[in-house]
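My current task is to audit a protein record that another person submitted. I need someone to confirm that the token line plausibly describes how this chain folds. Take the sequence as given and treat only the tokens as open to question. This is what I was given:
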Amino acid sequence: MDRRWLAFIVLCLGDLMIVLDSTVVNVALPSIRDALGFSEASLAWVVNAYLLTFGGFLLLGGRLADLYGQRRLFLIGLCVFTAASLACGLANSAVMLVAARAVQGLGGAVVSAVALSLITNLFPEQDVRVRAMGYFGFVMAAGGSVGVLLGGLLTDAFDWHWIFLINLPVGAAVFVAAARLLPVDVVTAAGAKLDVGGAITITTALLLAIYAIVGGNAAGWTSIPTLSMLGASAALFAAFLAIEAKATAPLMPLRLFRFRNVSVSNIIGVLWAAGMFAWFFLSALYMQSVLGYSPMQVGLAFLPANIIMGAFSYKLSAIVVNRFGIRRPLAVGLIIAAAGLMLFAMAPAEGTFVMHVLPGMALLGIGAGVAFNPILLAAMNDVKPEESGLASGVVNTSFMMGGALGLAVLASLAAARAVALIGEGATAAVALHGGYQVAFALGAALALMGGLLAFTLHDSKPAEIKGY
């Protein structure tokens, strides 16, 4: 086998561990909530702490790799992620778990940034690159399937601590394989400056915004603490833009947004992620807290979406892009995903799997599987080949930021609706169900907006993908 494909396999394994961790956590959220005393709203921090540092340092991780070597940074990122997984597995308090999850996000950002950059560099030919991205998407979707099953199995058979401890042998195996198979470092940006200021300001801005949103129900949306944090977040975001405009090596080069496809694909990424991350988080809670599923049953319930998503990402998405271009598959995929979210919004409190869970799962799997490749290709479509890795990194950052903000907003709205229903005399399960319905409906609206925006993209068909 060509050595670069062996290196590609190692990169997929590294990112697979990151995906495994995120899906494993969602299945175990109710168990973590009960064990460590999280509230319904604050439970989102188990996910958001990870998303914040992951999104905030994704581009900085890529810049560090250019400066100090991609192989070296990939190995460092693996070590950080694995060590943080150990801390998560040993956590005995909510604060310790959230802090360890934040460090996990930092390690995961470095691993993912270097993996995307290396894939881009390994396959400069567009047809081969699109095929590699298809395989990469399939592996990530397969990781989602394995993760939800593994999370249910470990939580049922042992306890939630093991969902993090399982990363230790996986991380060690990937480290050994990466050390042997990844190409020797070739530093391409010697002397480049690191945009530490950009990473700190945007991450702190998002941290303050999400903290204000998560705590808004309890503190009051017009209270001084909430408004102060939101104001500080806005000021820091403005500072981030100012830093990026003047930095010699900016974390997020604003010049890229002169291209319509880059700008639109990033907006779509924010909208899509806001709906999808909230769905993944809240649907696990819906199935356990309302429908009474065990963690293992939740893992099995997610299988259809992940299997379908993997099948589309592996070959079908590439075939569709070859035939219809980028714009229509992305738009149709997001509209199908929006329909899936609406089915969840309409599911009753006493719903059944076949009638009320499976249809929405299937539509979300199809929609996400169709849209995954087109959104990455759209982000890279208008830029020079040497900037395609940077463009894909920018859209991935927007995806993570949108996911963090969307999850915070929709989880808080769901919690507020649940509290209101309890005040009206509803049972806990009925109240939670009412909150989840609101969040799913808003998530569907966000995905639909993203789908409609996709029609404004400049379209072009990539070179025919060989092997399909």
Summary: The chain has two domains: 3-184+249-454, 195-248. The radius of gyration is 21 Å.
